[in-house]
Amino acid sequence: MFFDKMKEEKIELLGYESLKNFKIHKAKPSTKIFISSNLDWFDTEVEIDYEGQKASLAEIQKALSKKVNYVSLGDGTYGLLPEEWLAKFSLLFKMAEADGKTLKVSKYNFSVIDELHDMIDDEDIKNELNEKKQNLLAQNPENFQEIATPTELNAELRPYQTAGFQWLAYLDKIKWGGLLADDMGLGKTIQTLTFLQYYKNINGQLLSLVVCPTTLLFNWENEINKFTPELTYLIHHGPGRTTSEANLLQHNIIISTYGTLRSDILLFQNLKLDYVILDESQTIKNPSSKVAKAAQLLITKNRFALSGTPMQNNTFDIYSQMNFLNPGMLGTKDFFKEQFAKPVDKFQDTETKQHLRKLIYPFLLRRTKEQVAQDLPEKTEVTLYCEMGKEQRAIYDMYKNMYRAQILGTIENQGIEKSQFAILQGLMKLRQICDSPAILKDETKYENHSTKLDELLREMQENIGDHKVLIFSQFLGMLSLIKEKLTQNEIQFQYFDGNYTALQRETTIRVFQDNPKCQGFLISLKAGGMGLNLTAADYVYIVDPWWNPAVEQQAIDRTHRIGQTKNIFAYRLICKDTVEEKIMILKDKKNTLVKDIVSDDAQMIKQLTREDVNYLFS
Q: Which domain holds residue 63?
């Protein structure tokens, strides 16, 4: 303890080597290791010698667990464990399981053995370590040239996406799980679907389960249809979902939610799955939660996880995800908490942080927007599909049926031209309900039921990270709800609408551009369409898309303009099975017309046929 105290006080001790009766052994340890490779672990014999006095493995593990730098020797003396020795060997002893005179190290933790590369004589073990390090640590596209992209894929992958797919394919080869942790917007879904198509091609079959937040169900559906249409799928969600195991077995991909996984775990447990994929895997960050426990119970050949933010609040967030992917690789929950989470989070221990990085880095592939900027288009536009909850859907259906009867009756009696105001009014009401029925200015007042608010908050909390965001809505009522939600969750933002003066606008812009803690900027679509330069942002959310593409592009171009050095990602929030989705489909059908007409809403309504109106209100 005296030596520890002197070290803490940074006091150098001289002359203790000359002491005759002192119990600290004078010699530095000489260390030899002998490693043999088994199927799932490395057997590591370690010999630590203090001039003939050998330290037992059990004594060293005891010393390291107590965080002392000396070890009891057989002759009653103590041997010092020098700093350089601890730096080289402490992780080995921390992660190994003592078995007599041998330390057993899981092959998940091959990077621990690789740290001792210069002490290994066995060439076969060196080659095994080199292969794993090259393919898991280097993450270089050139390492995977033998794995071709499936010809069935309806897309041309960017170089980093090809590398991501091939990384997943290599993990499949060695049957280890991995976490694809690319920044939001870099295409984690398409990389995963490319792998699933590849897996089916080489194995002749595929039964996989994708678990995601409810708001991402239809994004998976759309991306399967778009990129891998040969893969069959089933959305397993909602009150009408199947209870038949046989029905589930008929599909290549079962898409479900975390809530449904928890509820239907007995059904899912009976499936012999090829793969389980957790999208937004930070959802299971609490290993004691029911959904994390349910995920662990799934029987599958291998597992992948997807998350742009695998560690949101603290180091412990990563434990449950890694334990799902490769059970046991980070020890027990209590061991991880004491050995890693507490030292890193509470004491900011740099060495422990480095140790943890060495352990998880082979199983976590992360590319940021900045790292792959040269592979990205300047602007990427994505549609996020949201599913209404029961209350919101009931209100929507009531208004839809009411307006459908009124408008079709008006068209029947007065013709399409004289029905344009009624059509526009009906569409506006339904779009407001898609945001939230609480913003309707009707006699009946409704509660705030909003799947879009839930999705927007989830995106801000789980995916955005340090990026800045512009949020546009046509409706001031919806912007008020967003303001309230962000305030409740302590997310800093700025705001303006058409009522703000030029000075007020300039003040809010300056705060947003210059304050790193200000993450969001809420703007009404009309007020924010012109004359703004908001290049601090690189994400844009359009909460209620509409006919006119020019208005939306003006909003997106508030950040995508001269002076912008980042790639821009623009997201449109669409409620599934509503007038919003139908408008998007009609826009595609009338693509030339919509591009040509960039005037007002009334002009667009004039172009609708009776069949179009019937479709929109169906």
A: 16-117
